[in-house]
């Protein structure tokens, strides 16, 4: 990879983390609740929804996931494999089967496993997202590997990026393996990607 591209990515990641961490506790709480209102149309009964547990300064998805369960959706959380980078999604059940990943310390659930392409919606955490729907992650490559099927064929779940408005940028550095998201959910609303950029719904 070009050293200048690497340097640009590192600088942009630092800036986006700074923006996200500058959010006050009250602003974070309000944003998490706003997601529930904006995403209401997506949380139908019987939907198979992939979520995530927020790490660090990521936007908290737990109120939205609770609302999805209340409305009759089935919830799945990411499960990191031991050797590969392609995520599984583990179905949340009634049993207390939570555990901490031995390498990353991330809380995971030991449930029935599914791949992302078998779900209806996947809410995708991110560090930055641009005007053409390309995301910048933390750099681990897990979601890049998980969503790689989109480069070979269309279909699969609705891919919804989750971010604060301050994480939106004009463009992020792109690689050949990057996949565009279908929608974006922020504290300001739900957006769909169109040929002309993001269009806010409602």
What is shown here, in short?
The chain has 202 residues and is of the alpha/beta class. It has helices at 3-21, 25-38, 62-70, 142-146; strands spanning 48-50, 74-79, 88-91, 98-100, 107-109, 113-114, 121-125, 128-129, 135-136, 158-162, 183-186, 189-194, 197-200.
Name a few traits of the molecule:
Rossmann fold, 202 residues, alpha/beta, nine-stranded mixed beta sheet, globular, 4 helices
Structural summary, described in words:
This protein is α/β, with parallel strands linked by helices and 202 residues long. The protein has a single domain, classed as Rossmann fold, CATH 3.40.50.10420. 23% of the residues lie in helices and 24% in strands. It is built from four helices and 13 strands. The strands form three sheets. It has a nine-stranded mixed beta sheet. Strands 4-5 form a two-stranded antiparallel sheet. It has a two-stranded antiparallel sheet with strand order 8-9. A hairpin with an 8-residue loop joins β2 and β3. α2 packs parallel to α3. The longest helix has 19 residues. The chain is globular. The protein starts with a helix and ends with a strand. 29% of the residues are buried. The model has no long low-confidence stretch (mean pLDDT 93).
């Amino acid at each position: 990879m070009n050293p200048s591209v690497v340097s640009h990515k590192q600088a942009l990641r630092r800036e986006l983390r700074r923006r996200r961490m500058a959010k006050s506790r009250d602003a974070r709480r309000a944003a998490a609740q706003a997601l529930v209102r904006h995403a209401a149309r997506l949380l139908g009964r019987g939907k198979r929804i992939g979520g995530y547990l927020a790490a660090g300064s990521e936007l908290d998805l737990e109120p939205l996931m609770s609302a999805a369960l209340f409305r009759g959706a089935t919830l799945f959380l990411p499960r990191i494999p031991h050797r590969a980078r392609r995520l599984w999604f583990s179905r949340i059940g009634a049993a207390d089967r939570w555990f901490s990943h031995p390498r990353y310390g991330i809380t995971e659930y030991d449930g029935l496993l599914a791949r992302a392409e078998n779900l209806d919606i996947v809410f995708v955490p991110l560090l930055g997202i641009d005007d053409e729907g390309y995301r910048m992650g933390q750099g681990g490559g897990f979601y890049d590997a998980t969503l790689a099927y989109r480069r070979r064929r269309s279909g699969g779940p609705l891919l919804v990026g989750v971010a604060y408005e301050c994480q939106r940028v004009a463009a992020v550095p792109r690689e050949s393996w990057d996949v565009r998201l279908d929608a974006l959910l922020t504290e300001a609303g739900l957006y769909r990607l169109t040929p002309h950029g993001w269009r806010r719904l409602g």
